[in-house]
Design brief:
The chain is α/β, with parallel strands linked by helices. The chain folds into 3 domains: about 325 residues, TIM Barrel; about 180 residues, Class I glutamine amidotransferase (GATase) domain (Rossmann fold); about 35 residues, no CATH class. Helices cover about 30% and strands about 20% of the residues. It contains 18 helices and 24 strands. The strands form 5 sheets. An 8-stranded parallel barrel has the order 1-2-3-4-5-6-7-8, surrounded by 4 helices. Strand 11, helix 17 and strand 12 form a beta-alpha-beta unit. It binds beta-D-galactopyranose. Beta-D-galactopyranose (GAL) binds next to loops.
Length: about 650
């Protein structure tokens, strides 16, 4: 497969006289794709029903004429001002009950029926007009669902929608009362209209009530997206993508992905390190201008799985892209350093090594106006090259001359489940318990061991071919995954906090986990503040979380006070706590020995990824590091054929 580069472009930000020159320069840089349109509603339809698409016709023509392929975005992330006058109650409402105002973006509520129809209408208009346009080679729905905390809306539309959704799911209020345990604190209902959204209660709302609202809200994103894909597919055969974000678990990406041809995500490594990852100050300083060496890879592997949600079985059937790649300083993190020279190239190659079809830089030219005027592009606001332009051109040349990156099943699987993320959000039990954080800590241990990983969805039905499987923090197991684990031929490490709840977030009796072949029961769970930990025999520690285990499964690791830390010696084993980074790595190393895998102990800046034919080595450190007798420059990439 041919891997390509692209860029995000906003023709509506620049005089029309500049478009042809921009397009020619994009082509000269070696770019293939240009994404446009996703925020341009006020220009596409300046007044309700008064369309002005002539400029968009000409922009697409100009870009296409230069030899570029267009990704056309639906503009629904930015409903124009007149839309709010037309539907004053379409605005999202925050948890405190405050209406979110017009004046930036993503101000709509997913449940609002009127806005959904507007979204259908503009999608249809664009699909009818451009569905057979030879230059429109892909579509993007909306922009970054969930960005700016916009999945949960406590609006009247959401309340009514939620009540209908509950009636369908539970059929009777009696059934709902039983499922939620509403006898507790006299919370029983006898009419759907009595059930409010779970905010502004005196103390915490009932957990299953909150979980139901999270499920409902996720379904609203799925439905909203499907309205657009249905319209587009009536008129176009081009693939449809959405650009997801990093570390967002507010909706089920696998379910949205089932309606899309391409999963893509927006990768801002330096912004994410500064803004949304828990790391020490020393670590932040070490990777300040490079980003977290495992965070991009984690999301690449996750979105490869999300891409596979539509395109059939197997982790590699799916298509996925990086739709937005950081090129220089961003504007939105608390602090915004510039990348080290070499990083705009390294990030792109890392995405290709994980299977990305396309890496598209955000954005072509830095805008001298509005909210993102301090956000770098490939060009400066005066159209001179910004530092990333030359690196993008270098990657484009390398893509021509290097062998293709072939996909292959990895030896290791990690299960990722959005519902579990919601469950532990609403019932963390310890303030810092977080599903993403737990899954990411397991992933980091695997990466330190030099292992390539496939992330798999919670309904995975077969683990064939995987030598090692990690399943931390899964609220419950789907029947498919339960049976896949029971039949697993490799080594599977389950837990902590896996299969210890029902679908309704209650405690199952018999207590979990209930997996045939694993004689372990969690009898009690403790959470620990950051100042405390559970020391393990022979070194290492659990932090944040520790479960007391009973059962016949032989104990292979213990705490210093002789409680089980890991139980099981066969294919299935249970991990009783949340290991700190070094301990997780030691555990992975021991599992690798049993699973017939080699664990490398890579230094923190050096990471590898194996494709079908090549081993890629990425040096996130600023200084050179040794690999296999070679010196890999700081912020450098190296690849070699696999033996
Ligand atoms: C993304 C978004 C873009 C732009 C970019 C800036 O989250 O999709 O529109 O805002 O961030 O880094």
């Amino acid at each position: 497969m041919k891997r390509t580069l692209g860029v995000c472009y906003y023709p509506e930000h620049w005089p029309e006289t500049q478009w042809a020159e921009d397009a020619a320069r994009m082509k000269d840089t070696g770019l293939t794709w240009v994404r446009i349109g996703e925020f341009a509603w006020s220009r596409m339809e300046p007044k309700p029903g008064r369309l002005d698409l002539g400029w968009l016709d000409r922009a697409i023509e100009t870009l296409g004429y230069a030899g570029l392929k267009v990704v056309l975005g639906t503009p629904t992330a930015t409903p124009p001002r007149w839309m709010v006058d037309r539907h004053p109650d379409m605005l999202a409402v925050d948890e405190q009950g405050r209406v979110r105002k017009f004046g930036s973006r993503r101000h709509y509520c997913f449940s609002h029926k009127g806005y959904r129809e507007e979204s259908r209408r503009i999608s249809r208009i664009l699909a009818e007009r451009y569905g057979r346009n030879p230059h429109v080679a892909a579509w993007q729905t909306d922009n970054e669902y969930a960005c700016h905390d916009t999945v949960l809306s406590y609006s009247t539309a959401a309340r009514h929608g939620f009540q209908d959704w509950l009636a369908q799911r539970y059929q009777s209020t009696d059934a709902l009362n039983r499922a939620w345990g509403n006898v507790f604190w006299s919370m029983e209902y006898d009419d759907w209209s009595q059930i409010d959204l779970p905010n502004l209660t005196v103390t915490e709302p009932n957990h299953p009530h909150q979980l139901a609202f999270r499920r409902y809200s996720s379904d609203m994103v799925v439905e909203f997206n499907r309205i657009q894909t249905d319209e587009i597919r009536k008129h176009s055969d081009a693939p449809i993508a959405h650009n997801y974000m990093g570390r967002v678990t507010d909706f089920d990406h696998f379910k949205v992905g089932a309606d899309l041809d391409i999963a893509s995500w927006d990768s801002y490594p330096i912004g994410f390190l500064s803004d949304r990852l828990e790391v020490t100050n020393d670590f932040k300083l070490r990777f300040l201008k490079q980003g977290h060496p495992d965070n991009q890879a984690f999301h690449h592997d996750l979105y490869r799985a999300v891409g596979a949600a539509r395109n059939g079985p197997g982790p590699h059937a799916g298509r996925w892209w990086v739709m937005e790649q950081q090129p220089g300083p961003v504007n939105w993190a608390p602090w915004n350093p510039a990348p080290l020279p070499g990083m705009a190239r390294l990030w792109a190659w890392e995405a290709f090594a994980h299977g990305a079809e396309c890496v598209s830089y955000f954005r072509w030219r830095q805008a001298p106006f509005a909210q993102e005027q301090m956000h770098a592009g490939l060009l400066r606001p005066d159209s001179q090259p910004a530092p990333a332009l030359a690196e993008a051109a270098q990657v484009a040349r390398e893509l021509q001359s290097q062998p293709d990156v072939s996909d292959v099943q990895s030896p290791v699987a990690l299960i990722f489940d959005y519902e579990s993320a919601w469950a532990w959000d609403v019932q963390p039990q310890g303030r810092d318990f977080d599903f993403f954080r737990l899954a990411f800590s397991a992933y980091r241990a695997l990466r330190r061991a030099g292992l390539s990983v496939d992330i798999l969805p919670p309904d995975t039905a077969s683990l064939a071919g995987y030598k090692l499987v990690m399943a931390p923090g899964l609220m419950t197991l789907s029947p498919a995954l339960r049976s896949a684990l029971e039949n697993c031929k490799g080594v599977a490490l389950i837990g902590p906090r896996t299969d210890t709840k029902t679908q309704e977030l209650s405690i199952p009796v018999p207590l979990g986990p209930n997996i045939a072949g694993l004689d372990v029961t969690v009898t009690l769970a403790e959470s620990l503040p950051p100042i405390a930990y559970v020391p393990l025999e022979a070194g290492g520690r659990f932090v944040s979380w520790f479960e007391h285990l009973e059962g016949e499964g032989p104990v292979t690791k213990r705490t210093t006070d002789r409680k089980p830390a890991i139980m099981g010696t066969g294919p299935l084993r249970y991990l009783a706590g949340w290991p700190d980074d070094d301990t997780y790595y030691q555990i992975v190393r021991d599992l690798c020995r049993d699973a017939g895998l080699t664990a490398l102990d890579l230094p923190d800046g050096l990471r590898i990824r194996d494709t079908g034919t090549h081993r890629f080595v990425f040096n996130y450190a600023s200084e050179p590091q040794q690999w296999n007798g070679k010196s890999i420059p700081g912020a450098g990439v190296h690849w070699e054929p696999l033996p």
